[in-house]
Structure formats: C-alpha cells, structure tokens
Amino acid sequence: MGLFSRRKTHFVDSDVLVIGGGMAGCGATYEARHWGRDLKIVCVEKANIERSGAVAQGLYAINCYMGMQWDENQPEDHVRYARNDLMGLVREDLGYDIARHVDSTVHKFEEWGLPIMKDPETGRYMREGKWQIMIHGESYKPIVAEAARKAATEVYNRIMVTHLLMDKSKESRVAGAVGFNVRTGDFYVFRAKAVIVAAGGASHIYKPRAVGEGMGRTWYAPWSSASAYALPILAGAKMTQMENRIVLTRFKDGYGPVGAYFLHLKTYTENAYGEEYESTWYDQTKELVGDYIDRHPVPTCLRNHAFLEEMKAGRGPIRMVTKEAFQDPHKETVGWENFLGMTIGQAVVWASQDIDPKHTNPELTTSEPYVMGSHATCSGAWASGPEDYSPDEYQWGYNRMMTVDGLFGAGDTIGGTAHKFSSGSYTEGRIAAKAAVNYINDMGKDVPRVSEDEYENLKAEIFKPLENYEVGRNEIVAGTVSPSYLLPMHGLQRLEKIMDEYVGGISSHYMTNEPLLTRGLELLGTLKEDLDHLGAEDLHQLQRAWELQHRVLASESVAQHTLFRKETRWPGYYYRGDHMKLDDDDWHCFTLSRYHKETGEWELEKAPVYHIVD
Ligand SMILES: Cc1cc2nc3c(=O)[nH]c(=O)nc-3n(C[C@H](O)[C@H](O)[C@H](O)COP(=O)(O)OP(=O)(O)OC[C@H]3O[C@@H](n4cnc5c(N)ncnc54)[C@H](O)[C@@H]3O)c2cc1C
Questions:
Q1: Whole-model pTM?
Q2: Ligand 1 centre and the CA of 222: distance in Å?
C-alpha cells in the first residue's frame, strides 16, 4: 500500500448515479426523481453545481427551442438543420428525440424563474435566430441547479470522478464509480445500479491561442477536461465521430460569442480591406465538398474555411462590422449586455485594448479545436436510440445507453447529436434518466456488485501522483524540475503541442495527414507511458493530474478517428492533406472506435448513417 492510499474511504450507495452536475447532469437528476420517486439519486460533481460547467457564467440565449406552441418549427426541421450543418452526418433518431421534447424543458426553466425575453407585440419568446431565444441568463445555472438539488437524494460537490467501476459478476456492465474529494482528499466509492455520465466536453487538448498568463482564456470552458469521454472509453464503450472536433469563429482574444451579433444586430464580416470575402472562395470550396456549399444556412465549418483561406491569402484580419449597428442605442445595449450576461471577459478585453465597437470594427479569430457533442459538432459516445424512432441497428437496449450495460450519457457526452446546446443537453439528461429508471426497474434482483480488489487498486493508483511528488521532490534539479516526476502542467503542455503540431491544431492551420497522425500517435504513446510518473504537490494538482489523464485518452481517440476517416468532411474544422476532398461514396458514415485497455489497442469501424427525416 502506498503512502497516500491510507486515506479515508466513503461508500455511497445509489440507484442512479449522475456524474457531472452541468446542464445534462441537472436534467438527469431532476427527471430521475420524476420517474423514480423512491429511488436513491446521487449527483456527483467536481466543482459545485450552483456554478459549474459550460453555463457557469450564464448565457444570453437558449440556442435550441422549436416554438411548437406557435408553430414556429417542428422537430423534423431541426433534424434537417443539424444534418445540413454537420455535412450530412448526424444521428437523426437522437436529434429528433431531443427536438420533440426540448420545448417542455424551456417552459420548465421559465416556470423556475429564468427570465426569457418576450416580443412585446406577439407575446412570444423573442427570437435571436430561427432556433435561438433570448434570455436574461446570468443566473441560468443556479436556477437549473436548484431544481436538481431539490430532486436529488444527495449532491456531492467537489468530487472528481476518475474511473467507472465494473460489475464483478457480469462482463461489460457498469457498477459505479470512484473519485476523490478535491478539498479533503477523501476517497469515494459510489455503488450504483445505473450510471449517467454528463461530464461536459474537452478544452485544452490542443494548444490554445492564448498561452502563459492568458491560457485560461479559451472559448470552451477551461475546466471541461474530457472526463465525459475518458470514463466511457476506459470502460470499453464505443465512441463515435471523435474526429469531428469543433473550431469556432469568435471575437479575438476574449472569445465573446458572435451569434447575437450576426443574428440580432445584423452585423457582418469583412476582410482587412473592407471587402466581402466568402464568395471569393465559393468555387474552390465547391471543388472540395461539392453541393454542400450550396446549402442554407452555409455549414459552420465552410464559413470557417472561407475565413481561413482569406487569412492565408494575406487579407486578414477579418473583422466584424459593428460600427453601423452600434449607432442604434438599443443595439449597442444588446451588444454589451450579450457579453455581460455570458462572457464578461470579452468586454474586459475590449476595454483593455481600447476597442469601442461603435468606433472600431473588432477582429475575429478562429479558436483552437475542442471536443464536444452539443454544439455545431457531435463527438461522443455511441448510444442506443429511442424505441419508437430508431432503426434496429441503432437500438440495443435502453435510450441513451452506451454499448456498456447500465452506462448512460447525455449532453456533450453523447455523439451524433449536434446543436442540442444548453436546453437540448438538459433535455437529453432527462431522456437518459427516464431510460435509466426503466433499466433499474427491469433489473429485478440481478443487481451489479463492485469488486473490492478493483476499487482498492484504483485507490492506490489515484493517489500515486502525491506519492511520486513526495518522493521525487528530494531530487529537484531546478525550480520545479525533477528527473523522477512530470508535473501536470508540463504534461498538459506536451499534450497540447503534440495535438497542435500533428493532429491539426492552429499552428498548422488545422492541417494533418497520415504520416503526421501516425507520428502524433507514437508521441502520445510515450506521453501515456510518462503519465505513470505524474507528480502532484497537493490536491489541486492531483485533480490536474487526473484531468490530464482524461485529456490524453480523449486526444488519442481524436487522433485515431482522424486517421481512420480518409477524407476531409469538415474543411474549416480540420483538413486531411492526403485526402483533401469530401468523399460521400466511401465516407458517408459514422466512425466508431473501441479501446481495449488491457492492450492499449483501438478498434475502428464504420456505421451507417440512416436518413429518417426526408
Ligand atoms: C462559451 C460558450 C457559449 C455557449 N453559448 C451557448 C448559448 O448561447 N446557448 C446555449 O443554449 N448553449 C450555449 N453553450 C453550450 C452549452 O453550454 C452546452 O451545450 C452545455 O453546457 C452542455 O451540457 P453538459 O452537461 O454536457 O456539459 P456542462 O454543462 O459543461 O456540464 C459538465 C459538468 O460535469 C462536471 N465534471 C466534469 N468532469 C467531471 C468529473 N471527472 N467528475 C465530476 N464532475 C465532472 C463539470 O464540472 C460540469 O459541471 C455555450 C457553451 C460555451 C462554452
């Protein structure tokens, strides 16, 4: 037994265990109580659900609302929209399932006190765009968290989940999870009949544009550390579309959102010489992707592509033309409020750089890539679909159950369903929880059991970085450098450099190819070996160490999927230099992977895309 494995162990028994109390996790916790009145529902969160996850700072718009009560959109319309934006490849069954339920979620938010802006003339929710409604959303997360807190039997804040536990009597069935309290250092064993992973997406797997003192300034939440992917991957769950990492065009340096600007303020972009540039790249893009460039709206990745090509042609920077809109005092107010409600940092950056959008058109940039399943991208776990709507091939059990029994997911965790955003992620949490309760009800007496050996071994493994540090610090050669351990920050920077240079990050203009990916995977392999020697000075660094472990595994998955898909499906998100064109004959399909942790091997395959909506 190691020095630090003598820590106190707490055992928590539950029926439904929800990992991550962000939007999807709060939705799952709330709904699990609705269907499972007498069940023990536990939510475990590494921060505090009051202000955790990507919505922590608040939002200014709910980006997924059909408006069926006013016949504004139907679920089928949303499926067509998401399919178009993702260049043809989405799980239409899962997307439809969210779209048909999402309005009821938004109505609940309003009932719980979320102020939704209304059109004074029609009384309807004020639209920012076809799918977006505007909110005063600084307190969006606390409002959503309150309902989850009331529904849960227990919420455990400040516990980072590091591994799932498997059933000792049945292969490929989940039985719980383990983690540690980031404040006390106590070890937790959660035993559960069903587990819902809702642990958000992944930032900081690629080198960010802002480094050094600014490295926390990423578009996706810096605390989204890929647990949503690493936990299922380690449990042997199949993943899908992990190559579909997203790149965002946002205001430079602060990553302030552009949605309200484009849609509500009607601002537009231009190159350094005041010229419209997207049409310049029409023919070239058509060569690469064919008719997809003619779709409306133009897919997000293709708009990025025109931006990148214009920059490479030497006509940057690209700017957002705000000077006209900001002459209108109402629009000026909306422009600033938009940031104050969700990305205060952008307002601060502009103030610090002497940018008043009334007098200066601010620069835009493209972000480093992120992995997520809820935005204009759909990486994540491969999940079973709804009984009444999914083709047979997409159904092997309960709705939103992964390929591991009893393991469910929602939000950024689940792949194939782009454009669910905050409201859709919450809705998917509700869908997963209902199915998890059904799973438990059908289980009878055949309940999963955890193995003492498994959690005791994990306990030693989890606290090992503290021990590595305690021993290795005697050999410090300079500052923080020791020959016997690797600090989490050093490991993170090494990961980001590999992903950036070999797997299509910002410094290569998102370009990669087979030789680069192969070398990148070799380097990730050596990084993985070194992770056994991570050293953590304190509990905070221990959390960083495990976040790094999760990020590295998710990154390996991204690299494997990118290598497997031999085409460039989403120019503007990334390019395969050796296969620059979209290839619908061979690659109009999903990519699936499965990781074998005993051997470290990845198994990849294709799965068909069924177009259910015409
Ligand atoms: C800058 C930005 C702008 C956005 N704008 C909008 C918008 O305008 N409108 C809109 O509708 N949507 C918007 N979104 C999208 C929306 O925030 C996400 O779709 C949604 O939050 C995803 O929900 P989730 O539950 O999957 O992840 P999250 O809400 O991020 O929740 C994940 C939770 O898991 C926890 N967690 C992670 N790892 C662990 C672990 N190992 N152990 C325990 N807990 C863990 C995290 O702390 C977090 O609380 C935006 C997102 C960002 C980042």
A1: 0.97
A2: 11
